Amino acid sequence: MHSIEARGLVKTYPAPGSKSRVRALDGLDLQVPRGAIFALVGPNGAGKTTTVKILTTLAVPDEGTAVIEGIDVLASPPGVRSVIGVVAQRSGADPTATGRENLVLQGHLYGQDTASARKRADELLEHFRLTDAAGRFVRTYSGGMQRRLDVALGLMHRPAVLFLDEPTTGLDPESRTAMWQEITRLAADDQVTVLLTTHYLDEADRLAERLAIVDHGRVVAEGEPGQLKAELGAPSLDEVYLHYAGRRYSDAQRLTEVFK
């Protein structure tokens, strides 16, 4: 069974200063097994963000279909939103409110009554080791604390699918490791399907059961990290990435994309 299925997604945008259109997605197909951690990797402009926008109902494809947990993204956007959580690269928390206030408000937005929202907020604060900071304004949180709160916000309504956009960007090594552990636990213990986008190939290699390399709006390679490395006899996922998505770049540009 698949939590996420996309077929033939096409999306174009007007090219700045021109009558032509940029083809962000060019017939992209994607299947994500239920309860799996799935990574989307690829160069900037490859189509990752556009794909996630369509899957999370923030954009409409020109062609193609997408289904989340059996719900058609185009036919029932509200239904899709009820079963997904989204953690954007930029924090969506209100810095002038406390951690607990942010969580309770998120619960209200999903229809939870105050008692239920407070109970769920306390559960998540404890789980993400934020109980001692629950009454502090979010603007006083460290980067790692704020990122943990972001994930907690995405989980307030117990979604079946969680979208994580660059979940560890800017985190110190300790916070990054803690986030990896939490993502792994969500899939293993809570059976949450996790789709993450990342530029850190070691992160995709360590976390993802499967990954897709996206370039020019298409999936150019897909499979288990170990399988993809074995097929090319590559010692690392970096080499796999460069093989499939790095050939149109100079060496300097490749290094910028892979290791930034």
How does this model look, in words?
There is one protein chain. The protein is an alpha/beta fold and about 260 residues long. Helices cover about 40% and strands about 25% of the residues. The protein is built from ten helices and ten strands. The chain is globular.
The neighbouring-strand order within the major sheet is 6-7-8-3-9-10
Overall body shape: globular
Helix share, percent: 25-40%
Distinct helical segment count: 10
Mean pLDDT over the residues: 92
Question: What separation lies between the terminal Cα atoms?
Answer: 35 Å
Q: Secondary-structure blueprint of this entry?
A:
Elements: E1 2-14, E2 21-33, E3 37-41, H1 48-55, E4 63-68, E5 71-72, H2 77-83, E6 84-87, H3 99-109, H4 114-127, H5 143-154, E7 161-165, H6 173-190, E8 193-197, H7 201-207, E9 210-215, E10 218-223, H8 225-232, H9 237-245, H10 251-259
In short:
Helix content is 40%, strand content 25%. With 260 residues, the chain is an alpha/beta fold.
Features:
single chain, alpha/beta, six-stranded mixed sheet, 10 helices, about 40% helix
